[in-house]
Amino acid sequence: MWKKSESEELHPQSSPDPHVSNPPSHKAPAPRVREHATIGSTISIKGDLSGEEDLLIEGKLEGKIECHGHSVTIGKNGHIKGDIYGKSVTVEGNVEGNLYGDEQLCVRQAGTVRGNIIAPRVALEDGANFKGSIDMSGKDKSPTLLNQDKVSITTKTT
User: Fold this and answer.
1) Of 48, 123, 144, 150, which has the fewest CB atoms closer than 10 Å, so is most exposed?
2) Exposed, middle or buried by CB within 10 Å (0-12, 13-18, 19+), for 92?
3) How far is CA 90 from the centre of its chain?
4) How big is the CA angle at 95 (ends 94 and 98), to the nearest 5 degrees?
């Protein structure tokens, strides 16, 4: 008489009978891909921009950017003239305007910022170019209130 091997008992094969239902397989859920929008390097926008997803800007934008609750990244080719609001803001390109990060703000080595930074956590990488003030005390300060407790930092790339 034929006896099932241990591997067949542990890993039963599907039944060839179509009337016999097999239990559903337990596959691991697919990793959730976070949606984001990209503005390419050949795109130029004049006007305000708002959205409910992460944003990567490689092009030029003149106006206010509002992505509350989401990350905003200004890529190496990005040029922004206006204020930026986001959950986290990362600058690798050029920004002329105030930056507001609900959680954090980072100016990368290739980044240039001319404006004030308001965020609870701020990182300026070695070689970043920044001229303005930094306020890490609270989220809801306006640029006019920054002048009362002004800390001015200037770094230049070498």
Assistant:
1) 144
2) buried
3) 7
4) 160
